Amino acid sequence: MTAGSVRMRVDLNGEDRTLVVEPRATLLHALREVFGLTGTRAGCQEGHCGTCTVLVDGEPVRSCLMFAVQAHRTRVETVEGCGDTDALGPLQQAFVDAGALGCGYCAPGFLMLAKGLIDRNDLGVDEIVETVLAANTCSCGNRDALASAITTARKAAAPVSPP
Amino acid sequence: MKHVGRSVARLDGPRHAAGKSRFLTDLEFPRQLHMHLVRSQVARGTVRDVLTEGAFTVPGVVAVWTAEDISHATVRAPLEGPYAALCPEPVLAGDSVHYRGEAVAAVFAHTADAAEDAAERIILDIAEEEPVLHFGNAQGAHQNTPSPGAEPVSMAYGDLNLAFHNADFTVERCLSVACDAPMAQEPRVAAALWDGGSETLRVWSAARPTLEGRRRIADAVGAPISAVVWEQHWAGGHFGAQAELCAEDVLVAMAARRLGQPVRWVEDPAERQALGGHGPGFEARARAAVSASGALLGLDVRFCLDLGAYPRPGAFHCADLIVSLLPGPYPPRAYRVAGQFQATNRAPMGFRSGGGRMEATFVRERLLDAAAAELGIAPSILRARNLSAPSGSGRDTAQDGPNKGLPTASVRADGHAVAQVAEESFALSVLRQRAAERRTRGSFCGFGIAQYVDVCGGGPFDRARVRIEADGGVEVVVSLAERGRGSHTAVAQIVADVIGVDYRRVRVRSGDLSPSEIGVSPFLRGGLTAAATSALLAAEALREKIARGAAQVLGIAPHNIAIRSGRVCEAGRNFGRSLELGELASAMAPGAAAECADGHGLFAEGVHRSSGVSFPSGLAAASVDIDAKTGFVRVQRVFLVHDVGNAINPGLAEAQLTAGAHGGVVAALYGAADPAGYGEPGWRGGSSSSFTGADLPPVEVALVERGSSAQNPLGINGIGSAGVVGVGSAMAAAVDDALGAPGFVERLPIDPRTIWAKISADGAAQSGGHARPAAAAAAKIP
Amino acid sequence: MRAAAFDYHVPKSLDEAVSLLARYGPDGRLLAGGQSLVPAMTARLARPAQVIDINRIRHLRGLSLAGDGVSVPALARHADFEAHGAQNPLAVLLSRLASSMGPLPVRTRGTFCGAVANADPAAEWCLLCVALGATIVLRSEARGVREVSAANFFRSVEMTDADDDEMVVSARLPGLPPWVQWGFSKVSRTTVGFGEALALCIAEVEGGKLTSPRIALGGVEAVPRRLGAAERILAGNAPSRTVAREAAATVARDVEPLTGDGAPGNFRRRLAATAVERAILDAIER
Lengths: 163, 782, 286
Hints:
The complex is a heterotrimer. By secondary structure, chain A is of the alpha+beta class.
């Protein structure tokens, strides 16, 4: 801990956690290096690729474009909160079933983005797919499989609420 | 249940979906040091001084190195033969820097923050000189440029003069492919750990464990080559971009040994383009001699490759592939090619996905399109007339030179089968027709195809180990790391079928299996072909052992043994005595009742000796739409046909080809690492960096299993990055088609400026204004 | 990829924020959405010693699109403009621009006023402010509240009229009459990339003629600006494809594109003309 470090609290995947970080640590760095949650991955680190996408208070954000201290008293959700290898959540299972996983590097970012949009429950299937594909990049050629995984998961979730 | 040939789900799927897969960037070591590099901000200059004092004011800094501290070590040994004059790439630049982003000093600190803070306090005093950034127009201006006139790669057969003399017409084009930057999702990582107890060095690197690489690392730490353990690891979306050994790999090894602590370096995204390994810039002057019936009589090509600041094997390999694969599936009667290299003050070039093959395909297919236009026949018809027969028509292999042993054209590539499947699956002629109809209504849309021959496999050796565990599970160790293609799943399918278990009981992992004195080939590594074949051989040997052991335990003749779902029993009997594989493994363990004479228990190794490479044939087609007011190209659909020989897992094969096709689209539309030619390592904010899935076309894939490779018992041709190879050429043809201008596209990536200029000029001509010629790239090859 | 060390401040009120800015001057930077500042800091292209995070100042939130004209508070995010209930023309226009701005996770954080303060020449909100004749409201401890018209606010690439101690506290956008017609065009090689040229056209039609047309262009020159010559061509003419083409033709002559980003001047001029022509057509056909 250095003199400039800050103590903060965060609801991380449903658990109340306290941590001490330097203000310059991004949320991405804190998740990976302080909490050891390496499912959130570093990609371009300038906000373009989306591999580091997590949910903060339910909203998808780039964790590389936010300092960890800014997440003080927020609810942060990462891929680790969605399910584990032997007990996958429904969206994760849809990714497996649709073959939407290539090298696996970008998968958590896609998962969290899709989860955020599905949980919001105000967008239709096509809008969600379009938004997700225009937000994150995958270099394994899984565009169509990702679209089908998200479609399956959205349809299985609650119907769109009337406006 | 058989697994091979079925699109079973990937074994690593749940791990990936849970975020539990571990990548190189996830590596952490107790007491690790972090390395950060200080890089030159100028593309060319003389280093007057490196002031490192400031770095030590940062708490946590352990060491700062410059070239002197590492005795001016180089990443590779000096080259031999025609390249002996080229100076090898230094680990840290000494007296001079040759590209912007070249590392000059290294900082080692307890935290990544401290290393970066300290690196900022190091002052480089460099006298800037005028850099050579554009290759082709400044011969000899760089110390690493071979003397003019030297053409170190060449090949020829047949009587070229006669071919051109007999030709009814010739087509000639100047064609080029811009330097391109690799796009990896995961930053590059290098880490090393010196274990003083066992005196071994463990290395984690994206680079492939070549013999040369092992030797350099071993020399760097003063240890024998057998003391270097090369850890294979999952990597995030690299696909060949990071195959070569880099200065950072050597540095972390040296530091781990000398500083006595694990050392880790993670590429900063801002460093990505500085690291080099880009696809080299390529320029060619090519001509073809053609008969009135459309027969390709002669092919004559001279080309030049941009090496960047220092020679890396990838660039030479790229040249070798160009030489070998230029004729593709249509071997001409006479062929001559000569290539040369030029150095520039840009990051060292290397090997991109589809490297060499993409350039060769572009040159050849552009010439064929030009010839088809000259004859007024459909491009597919001209191709059909020139495709080689399915076997035996390949020309001789090169007898000497760097391409020794590489055939000049496909030996078994079946171009006819590929073209036929393409037409049957996708009705390409209808698509071409539709594009033509839409053009009559004023749209700028077009359709194009390209056929290609890829090269896969190689070796020379690969090995695999298979073991039955006491719980009945099967453990497989292969040297191939899982790099996102699902290769471990394909290996599991093969082993499962041989042993007789469900593939989900097979656990595949990668290990450092290649004997240190052999290493792997850096480029035409065996890939899945070698890993799958080794695993097949190991599994077959193990199956024999199971039969012998079970015969002893169960009292049945070995040839009467059957294994169903992991249960060993007598063939043809549904009841009677049987054994779980795990029970058998325990019974055959060393010291147990039915122990194996070799002392290994239920374990076997398979060694695959590759006798050569395979030449899968393929076809790419694309339909494009052009925005007439901007010249921007949008790819509507891509079609791919690839002869895989034997599809172990068709779903995975299709995904791999689709990924390649997407890479090809990106390279042909948004490529060019440095479009403005400033020698800038990074190009922020350009649209090249902002494409997403929303910009990529749907890709339809048809697999052909016709020209099975004779090089391996599974008949796998390999896929590699085949998806990339033909897509850019097909897009170029489609743009020509859209513009009604055969031969218009002469450069990849396709430049919207030239398209817009062409459309404006045509518009002006139609409306009675002055017709301007389309902007064409000036010939730069002498 | 790690920012240089800084001190972190979390003011709870606007007064406190402005006072911190006054204290630190050029060493201090306000952090709102952070979608430009954070990557600039982690790449060490920006290295403020003092970061003043205004995200906890409650009353800088709360965007209302219902009235005639909008006062955009400092913490209104891009995404806040997307899901609007209001159906007035300004709200619809804001929604259209917001949804074209980068990937969704960036839109959920990035702020309108932050984009204005950053003055990226290709930013949609800067273009909008210039086209609408918005008023940028600044506040500092020394000078209190100061209002600057958008036309005078943007000085050059990422340079504005705001001093180091001044904060953009809001932007006042005038309302649009219900009968207004507007059109927007962004010329980009990718779906979510920055525009190589973007244009906004706002006009009314009276008696079959275009009146009080406003055309603004962004992403081409150092700052977004109104295009007088093109506007004059529209004014008083009947809306048609011909008039759109004629107006666009003036653009290629009028603009002086920034160079050095890969697209040479002539081509960029052409893209600018295309963006303007399409924005006009979009307005006419709306």
